[in-house]
Design brief:
By secondary structure, the chain is an alpha+beta fold. Helix 5 packs antiparallel against helix 7 and helix 13 packs across helix 14.
Amino acid sequence: MMLVEIGWTPSRMTLHDDFHDDDWLQPPGDGDTRSRKTRSSDTHGAKFRARRHKPPSFPDQTLGPFTIGSQLDVGSHGWIFNARDQSQRDVAVKILTQPESRSGIRAKSGFRRMRSVRHPNLMPVLEMYQTQDYLAYSMVQMAGANLESELKRLRLLPLQEGYQRLCCMVQQAAAALAHLHSHQLIHRDVKPTNLMFDSSANCVRLIDFDLVTDFDADLDLSCYRDYLVWTPGYVAPEVLSRQYYSPAGDIFSLGMVLLVGLRALSRSERRREHNQSDMSDLVDADVTPLRRDSKDSDLDRKLIQHALDGLHPSIPGCLIDTVAEMVSPDLSDRPLAASLADRAWDGSTLNKTTNRSASLTTTTNRFHTQVQKQDAALLDRLHTWMLHVQRGRKSRLHIQGPTRCGKSTLFAIAVDQLRQHRWSQVFESYGDLASPHPWATLEPLLEDIVSRYRRRDREPVAVDDDTREVLVHAFRSLDLILSRPRKQESTTDQIQPSNDEVRSALVTFFRGVRSIGPLFLAIEQIERTDASTLSLLRELIKDDHDEPGLGIITTSTDSFPADETLTMPRIE
């Protein structure tokens, strides 16, 4: 135990191993400095830590679609269990408490963004389920160990074999980040415990998407956020100094993972050189993280440079140069994740991860090409419809067709093209009847809007006090982007608003959003959408308020009421 002070300014990082926690800091709202006894690896500023509480228990060992089994692990924010889903698949389920807290809202947003992102080096997110008290999401169950445990084994190998295997693992992590960044997403918590290694498949997978968020390289160059999340030892300096989150921050964190691993291998090699033949004690010994300083950026840089200079001379200079680029204090000097995935850092042959990634990209491009070749008239009709909405029309477009006909690809083409127009606002969701939430499909859309409107270039959405009260009661995250109330908010318990009241308040809210520019709501699998969201979509189209255009894009295998329908045959 040690006494640390926690406040708006992050305290000095310590030498203690932080591999076991998802450390992040939420600055206290009152700005006061608070003191408490804590472990050095505690989450700074966290109000709830799962490690300090008993794991939850559930009647009949069920939580929604999941049959809960034994506990696998526990982190800062929640517990991970063996489980079985409704399809009788064995899955790993992460369960978090307080789903409507700010950290819970961020976690939900990250999970939802990852549901449609697939890559061999990303752990797939399968299902999500929320109750009043818990948020649960399932992942593919993977037999293996995290990179922290693997580093302990690598220290027993000869130096060259050790760093080549480490480079192979980091290259795979870079491929995962490259795919993530190509979807305009950043991870923000790259560290050894969030890299799982499957020895049987010789595959590394990036996990833990609680902090995943989006970025816009054109409209949001700084990627500034009005909160602070970080893991000591792996955080990029611009996060602490300016609260900037960008793909370059993920690269810095991955570079620190590689540097920590190379330091461990260097120390083991020096022990061998000093004729210490017994290395068995290294199997259980912790890998010492790098000392950092969060207050003095110059000292922090010197500490990193000292670690680079202390690496064993047998480690290739080109590899050390690559690490130095990754942990550069200048964001523009850091390489792109895609270039790291393709780079032979130490002169060895590239692993096969890049080929799998390329194969995945080739498959996507094949569908993209086939959709374009199949019927140019489809794209002409799509472009014409977009233009009409951007000029002020309110209209619905539906893409229908059998499985594997390219609906999702055409849907993605539409969304991508709309996002190229800066005056268009585009927000996505998907049908999800498995969720008990009455607005299950709308909630991801609203969280997407919240994420966009929290950037510096947007003003709060103006609504009256009564509307604000209804919206915040139904969707707590909207409190972050709505105009502040003119009167003091009531501290008494509020009556649960009816669905009709919520729908009416949402129509007013979307008028405020449309006042910025044309609005497009894109929903995949509309046949799985809840009744409340479907009713709202009808109301939005009927709303005769004089605001810029509104377009609703939907997909399904069956027909759906729309002003424009694009029917696609199966692609052979």
